[in-house]
């Protein structure tokens, strides 16, 4: 019998979060490392009260541009914090923000606009002259809104400055409140529909965990502005009065002086960025010295990287929190690492479900009890689960098993009840128990590697793709020693880190990488 504690039925409305936070913590600082395209005059150092006023202002401008309650506003523009501001502004007038990654190509965006049936589109000059140049936007979008300029066929937010402010539109909690999209590794991405109540469900475990932090810490975040994680993270931090540092430019040489100046106590970013930031441990400015809590959400992070990051902190007993979750469900399972256990930890063990809030079971594949050698399908229950895929409800329901949601991952639970995630079901290679475990092990043995990805070769053999620091040639002797336990591996292929195809949250797109490698091997074979 599952003990489930239902989440609050108070809707979490993105459009009023800054205003509610400002009522309690108006002077809390919000620091950016870049200017906002839609509000360059706002500068890089705001307060929560200033953020709330900016959202209210942009909401008034969107209303003046013709955006109305219940309508869709697709946001597809250069990566910038103004995406967050504009999404909250759209929510404030009752519209549904649809967050499209700047990395999507034009045909994919066109297909998503068609699926949305002529939404309003907020974009910029760069996208209009490049990715969107081949689309008939007059047919695909009801209105095309841009931050500034006077391009024919568009409405400029800059020209609507001073539009009358309006009271927020408070829609029913079951109404769609936000749409994000999946990675689209197997075709056009799915549009994931969140309601204000499902957002409250995914907010709850995050708020609970941050509530365990007893002192006011500065939170530095470098994650995608089109991922729901950014919106939940800021909802929690702003409500609790934590100062926030928002990072767009994640290169270590740019991050180091910013972190050294703001001295965050909490840091969160994508796994790929953590790999790069590990070098900050040895930086003369000691930018990680004040970090008490590191947080990782988007994908498992290799234990050696975690160990090195923790070694850069001068705080007593720093912790690295690892969360396992999904765009459709939010955080589901958690564990933490310390300086003592990180290096030797099993990176496939992702911890326990969050008591009373999230639940996990593992369903047998082919009738066999789930074990490491025979992993089962991981299914979850959470109040934070999205309600459907927009215009693809049948596709959504295919992943439901009663009240349980099939994540698409395979794994098992050990005798202590801990969840072990071994692979994505679509990434399983028959001759390998877990591609991710092999990657963790070999990365722990070879300091010169930045990344290692195991994909199926032309004959389904496990094919290692390696990326080294500074693209230095891989030492074949050291490689052979490191993979002695894995004789089934093919000879490695070396690529620059920049050539790995990635999602908006910097996960490696393994299916796309496999396709590219097979094409390359066919050409050279």
Automatic annotation (TrEMBL):
Residues 19-390 form the AMP-dependent synthetase/ligase domain. It holds the Pfam family AMP-binding. InterPro entries: AMP-binding_CS (IPR020845), AMP-dep_synth/lig_dom (IPR000873), ANL_N_sf (IPR042099), ATP-dep_AMP-bd_enzyme (IPR050237). PROSITE patterns: AMP_BINDING. This is AMP-binding protein.
